[in-house]
Structure formats: C-alpha cells, structure tokens
Design brief:
Elements lengths: L1 E5 L8 E5 L9 E9 L3 H8 L18 E9 L10 E5 L13 E5 L3 E3 L13 H14 L6 E5 L4 H12 L3 E6 L4 H7 L3 E4 L10 H8 L4 E6 L11 E9 L12 E4 L8 H13 L16 H9 L6 E7 L10 H4 L5 E7 L7 E9 L7 E3 L10 H6 L4 E3 L1 H23 L8 E4 L4 H10 L6 E2 L3 H4 L6 H11 L8 E8 L3 E8 L5
Parallel strand pairs: 8-9, 8-11, 9-10, 11-12, 12-13, 19-20, 19-21
Antiparallel strand pairs: 1-2, 3-4, 3-6, 4-5, 5-7, 14-15, 16-22, 17-18, 21-22
Length: 507
C-alpha cells in the first residue's frame, strides 16, 4: 500500500510516498480502508523532529496522521463493527504501524465511531483530533451555562470547534480574529470578536484587547493559538486557562492552568460519538481546506504552516563594503551598505498585492559577479592577492540588460493586473545610478509617474534600495490610500522582480 513517509526529519520536502505492507488488525483493532486523513499541526511537529522523544521505539519511515475516515476493511477479535461500516477514528502515529496517512490504517476500535449518514465521509476526517481536543478543553474547564470563555485562534480548526461546542453548551464566547474572519466567528457562535492585531487605538497586548471587550475579565480562556503569557490578562482573578502546547508558563493571580493531552483523553469513543452526532446535525462545522493526493503532502504542510492573516517581516540588506575594490572607480563610488524592511500583513479588500513578476536570465550571470569566495571557487591566498573576492560589474552590459528586459517585465505585470500604465501613481525602483534610472523610466513609458529616489542620499544600496525608497515615500506623505504603487527591483543573476500594490494608508 502507499503511505506518506518521513525517512528523516526536516522541511516539507522530506515527505514522500512510500510502499508499506498492508497491516493486519489485532484483537480490539480495525483496519480501515482510508477515504481521507487530515493534516494537522502535530504532523508538522512530527516531520520537523519536535516529537522525536515519542518515537524512540519506532524505526523510520514514520507515517503521520491522527485523523482518519473510511470503511471497515477487516476487524480483529472482540470488535462490534461490521465490514463496510462508515467510520472515523483517532489514530496514534507514535507506534510501529504509524499514523493515518496511508491507504489502510489499523486503529483501536475504542477510538472509532460510526459516521452519521448526514456527514460526508471525506469531511469526517477533519473531526477527530481537533474536535476531541476542544471537547477535552471544555471538559477540563467544566464551566456552567452563562460563563464567559475567551478563545484564541477561533478561525482555525481547533478554535472553531471550541467556539461551536461552547456556544452549544450555553457559554458566552469572545474570540479574536482578523476583520475578514469576523463573519465566520459570529457564525460559529462568538458573541464578541476582538481584533487579533492592534490598531492605533487598541491595547497592544491580546489580553488587553479582550479586557476592553469584557472589563471584568473572562471566566476562562482556551489558548488555541498558543499566544501564552500576553493573553492571560483576559482572564479574571481565580479564573482558568487551557493551554494547547506543553511548556513553561507563569500563571498569575490565582489562575488555574489545564493542559490538553488528547492522547490521554479517556473514553474517546463516547466523546467522538457526541461530536459525530453534532456534526451530522449541522451543529459542528467540519471545514475542509483542500482535498489533496498523497504526493501533495509537502504542499499540505506548507499551506498549514502559512498564516494568511498574520504578518511577515521582509528584509533586504547588502554589505558591499566587504567586497568593494576601492581602486575601481566604476563601482566604489556608486555602491553602499544598506538595510531596509517592510511589514506585510492583512489589508482591506481591493488593497495590497495586485500582481507580481519574477524572471531571471542565467546566461547573463557574468554581468555582476564575485569571482571567488564561494563553493565553486573557494578563496585562496593567491585569489585574495588577485582580488578575486571583489565585486565586479560590466556597467554597459548591465545597462543594456536593464533597458532590454525590465520595461517589458513591468508591462507584463501591468497587463496581468489589468492596470494601464497611465493609472500607476508611484514607481519605487531599485536605485542603480541616476542616468540609468532616468532612461529606464522613459523607456518604460512611466515619465508621468512619481518616481521615488533615494539615490542621491544613499547611493546604490542593492536589495535595500526598494524598501528604503518605499519607507521614504511613506514618511514624506506622498502615498495616499488607494494609490497604485509599482515596486521594481533588478540585479545580479541577472534577475528581475516587480510587484504592483494598491496602497492602504494606516489608520
């Protein structure tokens, strides 16, 4: 049979499809012909080696997966299921048989329940682990009806199940979310939604934002997003918090800490039976992001690791002073050290990235080069004496490449984005030198656009040029909400990168 295997720890690309023998069920076990197996954060932790201690008795390849759905294919002694039964199960991946991500999975009958007719068999695979974890968290808290509960990560699978189960049990739920998540969170049952990320007038900590919504503090918190200490301010004195990852946490003000461990949750079958019934009745929403083939397991891990509503810090930096030949007037007077950064995050609909263009021409790699000092030509005393470690540039060749290749790349980007060149408001380009920059703007037909230059102040600072120029444009007040901003970079390789964004002014 085919299975997703991990032969060594690492990034998503260590995942591969392997062949394994079809396992046989023992007493009290079932073999399931798998319809679907979910991918969860635990699988990413297993793949990266963070759970190695749990696999000390298991030889690779490891098979991930803790959720499975399918039909009973074989049954061991002492089980009450019939062949062909539609089932879902919680799976222990820390055993020689491995986890759920295979064509057949052997599971404990005690961790298996029937899938109700109203629940799609494939979608049922998204229920066991996260819904069981939510069930356990609420069981640990044992809150009475009317109590208040804060939930972090409510738009995720675990947080979403916590919200729905809590609302079903009569709790008042406060959840955090990005603006685009608010309709979903309200649909799941959250009475109040607080901002996940602070605006100018919001408290800086997540706990402070919950407190603004409920000044007296919530009775309990389920920290599904693993925010930790900064969110504890949300909880009243003497309240409770459920943490979803092990690790140290200083809990103040008499707050009681509970830790979920779904592996140790007793009587999983009873909890799964309740959860399956709620899902079959439409009271629990199983949200499937995508249905992928086993060969796409690396893609699934990358998608799960991404944070579409979070923030990313993008940094560009070059230190030319280490490689400049100060006797070469063609480069030494142009190039300088620099670093620039931009924070990329969620924006309103219609704003943000409208399109990108990336290309490279490896046959032109000799135009900008450092001959020695890398793996191809390690630096030796002789090469050092010859100046092999210095930055070299064919100025005319670079000029010709830029003039021939960059304007068409910018126009391809504008065409794909559906934006005529005359509608562009700002150009924030790499800053090579003044003459080349002026000619590039003219050749690209962008003379009408406000071109932001920092060349006169900083020189050519390489990959820092675009973020530094963008920052200068923002600080000057030139960028208005809704303006179309074209960012254009080019350099060694030879390579070109450009993006078109609709600017959102900070509020």
């Amino acid at each position: 049979m085919r299975a997703v295997g991990i032969l060594e720890y690492g990034g998503p690309d260590v995942l591969e499809v392997i062949d394994r023998d079809i396992p046989d069920p023992g007493p009290g076990e079932l073999r399931i012909r798998v319809a679907a197996a979910a991918v969860n954060p635990t699988d990413l932790m297993l793949r990266s080696g963070l759970l190695d201690a749990y696999l000390s008795a298991v030889e690779p390849p490891y098979v991930p997966g803790m959720d499975v759905s399918g039909t009973v294919d074989a049954a061991g002694a002492g089980t009450l299921f019939a062949l062909g039964d539609r089932v879902m199960a919680f799976v222990d991946p820390f055993r020689p048989q491995g986890g759920a991500q295979a064509e057949y999975a052997v599971v404990s009958a005690a961790d298996t329940v029937l899938v109700p007719q109203g629940l799609d068999l494939v979608e049922a695979a998204g229920l066991p682990m996260n819904a069981l974890t939510a069930h356990q968290a609420l069981a640990q808290l044992a809150l009475p009806r009317g109590a208040s509960l804060a939930v972090t990560g409510g738009a995720g699978a675990l947080g979403g199940f916590v919200i729905q189960l809590a609302a079903h049990r009569g709790l008042r739920v406060v959840a955090d979310g990005a603006p685009q998540d608010e309709p979903l969170l309200k649909l799941l049952g959250a009475e109040t939604v607080v901002p996940r990320h602070p605006g100018p007038s919001d408290p800086r900590t997540p706990g402070g934002r919950y407190r603004r919504a409920l000044p007296e503090g919530v009775d309990a918190l389920v920290d599904a997003a693993v925010l930790g200490e900064p969110v504890l301010d949300a909880v009243r004195d003497g309240g409770a918090v459920v943490t979803c990852r092990p690790g140290p946490l200083e809990v103040p003000r008499g707050i009681v800490r509970h830790e979920v461990n779904v592996m140790a949750y007793p009587d999983k079958a009873a909890a799964l039976t309740e959860l399956a019934a709620l899902a079959g009745a439409g009271l629990l929403s199983v949200r499937t992001a995508a249905l992928l083939a086993p060969s796409a397991a690396p893609q699934a891990h990358r998608r799960l690791a991404a944070h579409p509503d979070g923030y990313a810090l993008v940094v560009g930096a070059d230190v030319y002073s280490r490689i400049l030949d100060y006797g070469d007037h063609r480069t030494a007077v142009l190039l300088g050290d620099g670093a620039g950064a931009a924070v990329v995050g969620p924006v309103r609909d219609g704003h943000g990235f409208l399109g990108t263009e990336l290309s490279s021409s490896g046959d032109a790699h000799g135009l900008i080069r450092v001959e020695a000092g890398g793996s191809r030509r390690p630096l030796t005393p002789q090469l050092l004496e010859e100046g092999g470690h210095f930055f070299r540039m064919d100025g005319r060749g670079v000029r010709d490449f830029v003039m021939d290749h960059v304007p068409p790349a910018l126009h391809r980007l504008l065409r794909r984005s559906g934006v005529p060149a005359e509608r562009v408001d700002h150009l924030v380009p790499h800053q090579p030198n003044g003459v080349l920059l002026r000619r590039l703007v003219e050749r690209a037909g962008l003379s009408h656009v406000h071109t932001h230059r920092t060349l006169e102040k900083y020189g050519n600072i390489g990959s820092a040029s675009v973020p530094v120029a963008l920052d200068a444009a923002r600080r000057s007040g030139a960028l208005g909400d809704g303006d179309l901003v074209l960012l254009a970079g080019f350099g060694g390789g030879m390579s070109i990168g450009a993006t078109l964004i609709r600017w959102q002014e900070q509020t």
